[in-house]
């Protein structure tokens, strides 16, 4: 699983990581899954805090499976077992955001997000309008640069970039020469017909980012590559928390991610 779905309309609340809070979430998820899918009779929830983002990992019973296996007398016979599957919530109070990753239909993901808010935030979520969490059209600017701070010792490249026409299903995927990755921003004009298809007629809907980290005290050199899709899907959360923190710093600076304003205030918690 690589795609995390993000919503930014949660309240300013502290999540309940206590045994009681986790048990409450486990019971509510079990009830939801049994009602909607006939699975999830037993559910166990673990929680951990990583750099201000609280992760709730739910392990729910999946459907019964059967395999052929050798028994002690060396005979082949069917064995049944019930594996678990994971539902992971990542709640960031600072951004009032919730990210969810699970192999569930979109409708049930929405219900699971509501269950999470009631169980560990003591809050009802309103109807979610999937506004953009990631604004990729800033990359259409031919003068856009992926500038970073020297102290972070990180270089950023864009691999593929997908343009989607606004009024039809046509798409264009751009890939720059690896030796000249920054020219991808100028390639947009190269491939568009400025008279019939100007920049204003397309949206940037999918981008693959590569962040290359230099070695520093307490940090190994390495790179992370992940996709961001408009409006609210991203694979970044699968990376280590320290690198997620740096990536989000630049996403905010570049205007790719901006937290949605909320009527709640921290004092309401």
Keywords:
single chain; about 270 residues; alpha+beta; 2 domains; ten-stranded antiparallel beta sheet; two-stranded antiparallel ribbon; 4 helices; 12 strands; globular; disordered C terminus
* Mean of pLDDT: 88
Strand content: 25-35%
Strand order of the largest sheet: 2-3-6-7-1-12-11-10-8-9
Assign the structural class, choosing from mainly alpha, mainly beta, alpha/beta, alpha+beta, or little secondary structure: alpha+beta
How many distinct beta strands? Answer: 12
- SS field, number of helical segments: 4
Polypeptide structure, described:
A hairpin with a 4-residue loop joins strand 6 (about 85-90) and strand 7 (about 95-100). This protein has about 270 residues and is of the alpha+beta class. It has a 10-stranded antiparallel beta sheet with strand order 2-3-6-7-1-12-11-10-8-9, with helices on both faces. The longest helix has 19 residues, at about 20-35. The protein has 4 helices and 12 strands, in the order βαββββββαββαβββα.
Summarize the structure in short.
The protein is an alpha+beta fold and 269 residues long.
């Amino acid at each position: 699983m690589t795609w995390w779905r993000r919503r930014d309309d949660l309240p300013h609340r502290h999540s309940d990581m206590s045994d009681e809070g986790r048990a409450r979430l486990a019971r509510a998820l079990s009830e939801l899954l049994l009602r909607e899918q006939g699975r999830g009779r037993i559910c166990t929830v673990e929680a951990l805090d990583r750099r201000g983002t609280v992760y709730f990992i739910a392990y729910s019973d999946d459907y019964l499976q059967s395999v052929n296996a050798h028994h002690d007398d060396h005979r082949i016979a069917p064995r049944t077992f019930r594996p678990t599957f994971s539902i992971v919530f990542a709640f960031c109070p600072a951004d009032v955001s919730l990210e969810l990753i699970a192999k569930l239909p979109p409708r049930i993901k929405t219900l699971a997000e509501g269950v999470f808010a009631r169980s560990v935030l003591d809050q009802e979520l309103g109807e979610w309008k999937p506004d953009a969490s990631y604004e990729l059209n800033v990359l259409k600017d031919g003068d856009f640069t992926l500038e970073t701070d020297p102290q972070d010792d990180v270089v950023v490249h864009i691999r593929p970039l997908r343009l989607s026409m606004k009024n039809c299903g046509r798409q264009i995927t751009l890939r720059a020469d690896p030796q000249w990755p920054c020219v991808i921003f100028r390639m947009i004009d190269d491939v568009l017909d400025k008279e019939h298809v100007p920049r204003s007629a397309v949206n940037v809907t999918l981008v693959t980012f590569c962040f290359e980290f230099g070695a520093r005290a307490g940090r190994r050199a390495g790179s992370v590559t992940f996709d961001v899709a408009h409006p609210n899907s991203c694979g970044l959360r699968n990376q280590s928390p320290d690198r997620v923190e740096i990536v989000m710093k630049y996403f905010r600076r570049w205007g790719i991610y901006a937290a949605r304003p909320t009527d709640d205030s921290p004092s309401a918690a």
